[in-house]
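Thread: "does anyone have the structure for this chain?"

Original post by V.I.:
We have the sequence but no experimental structure in hand. Need at least a predicted one for the grant figures.
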Amino acid sequence: MDKAAKWLKKNFNYEFSDEALLRQALTHRSVYGSNNERLEFLGDSVLQIIVSDLLFHKVPEASEGRLSRLRASLVKDSTLSELASELGLGAHLILGSGEMKTGGCRRASILADALEAIFGAVYLDAGLEAVKEIIVSIYGDRIAKLPDQLDLRDPKSRLQEYLQARQLDLPIYAVDRISGKAHRQSFEISCVIESLGLEAAGRGKSRRDGEQEAALSMLAMIEGRNE
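Reply from O.Q.:
Generated one for you, tokens below.
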């Protein structure tokens, strides 16, 4: 774990007292034995409370609804996977042979879960303040420059508004696959717009999250087609 520990020190400015926690945080469930699912569960909750606290003090004029939308934009899987990619987390993941062969180190859901697992591991190792310092550091401009009200509209709403304005059929969402244990499921969702001949996919921890990711992918496809 020396290489991973050096990477963590460089990117998070943190050193574990118990390096076994770092190894567990980086270990995907495709590896037999201890993995990062429980730490990811803990890290998700830690991230939620820290981001909530940061937003509560940063935007004191914001309503509960806007605070919720701001928090959702910061803690969603796509944001976490972007952060993980920027930090080079994928190179340090411990994956089973199947995931290694299929590019698991680049898979958004695996990267997002591993980053949350690191938050959970740091919380166990050093407490809430240590995790807060890391989150403030790696989120950087994402917290310093929060999106405005229009940018906070969720992807499904934005997609629906785009289609209605052009009198096009609304998208059809379908659950293609549900994987994982009952308490930790992953939903793979398809989004189809028949009149445009387009289909996009998304994945999330709930059907709603998966639909939002699929809608976001569809918006990107439409934008690319219109360029």
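V.I.: this helps a lot. The first strand starts at residue 172 and ends at 179.
O.Q.: and The chain is about 60% helix and 10% strand.
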